[in-house]
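I hope you will forgive my troubling you with a question about protein structure. Could you please explain, in whatever detail you think fit, how the structure tokens follow from the sequence? Thank you for your consideration; the sequence and its tokens are set out here.
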Amino acid sequence: MILLAKKRYRDKEVKFFVTEGELEIIDKKADVAGLDRSKYCRSMTLDGLIVKQDFKQVDDLVYEVNKIGTNINQVARRANELEHVTLDDIKYLKKQLDVIYQQIEKFYGGG
């Protein structure tokens, strides 16, 4: 009696290399998903989602906050030395805060 091999539905092999640590992570994720490694990798490859995040707006906001922090320190130092703050100093800080608020609106508004 000769047994014929059943033809595979998926007959193309895809190979890639991972480290031991990466393989452990893949296996853990497959286990959590209730899939074997092959099904998990196929599912992630075909249906998975890669999210690329752009943090430029956050970086811009952090830069502006750092700038205003430096300016506040300068005004505080002047207030301690001279024991007063000018109206121009307050206006300048208000203007800096407005820039930060604009950046925050831009970030959360997506524009």
User: Anything to note?
Assistant: The mean pLDDT is 84. Helices lie at 20-33, 37-47, 56-82, 87-109. Residues 56-109 form one domain. DSSP finds four helices and no strands in the chain.
